[in-house]
């Protein structure tokens, strides 16, 4: 455990759209009572794909004490899906659903 960059959610700004959840390649986020929540800080890669897709600017990245990223998750996820989700916000709208 040490300081690292990790996602944080401003629940006052969160509108519960779920875009962050769908864009997170490591499934670190989930919705509870229409608010984004960090499931497990070990799953947060800190890449910020969720920040890029948030229409209400409810997500931000901060440096704080957190458990180390669980690199073994990369062996448990589909790497093509991981890359696709990381780049989702760069794609034109008509290609995002494909």
TrEMBL record:
Keywords: 4Fe-4S, Electron transport, Iron, Iron-sulfur, Metal-binding, Repeat, Transport. InterPro entries: 4Fe4S_Fe-S-bd (IPR017896), 4Fe4S_Fe_S_CS (IPR017900), Fe-S_Ferredoxin (IPR050572). The keyword Transport applies. GO terms for molecular function: 4 iron, 4 sulfur cluster binding; metal ion binding; oxidoreductase activity. Residues 5-34, 35-64 form the 4Fe-4S ferredoxin-type domain. It comes from the Archaea. This is 4Fe-4S ferredoxin-type domain-containing protein. The lineage of its organism: Archaea, Methanobacteriati, Methanobacteriota, Archaeoglobi, Archaeoglobales.
């Amino acid at each position: 455990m040490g300081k690292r960059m990790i996602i944080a959610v401003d629940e006052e700004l969160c509108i519960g759209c779920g875009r962050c959840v769908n864009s997170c390649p490591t499934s670190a986020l989930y919705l509870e009572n229409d608010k984004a929540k960090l499931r497990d800080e070990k799953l947060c890669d800190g890449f910020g794909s969720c920040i890029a897709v948030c229409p209400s600017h409810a997500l931000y990245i901060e440096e704080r004490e957190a458990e180390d990223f669980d690199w073994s998750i990369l062996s448990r996820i589909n790497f093509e899906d991981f890359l696709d989700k990381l780049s989702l916000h760069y794609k034109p709208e008509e290609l995002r659903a494909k």
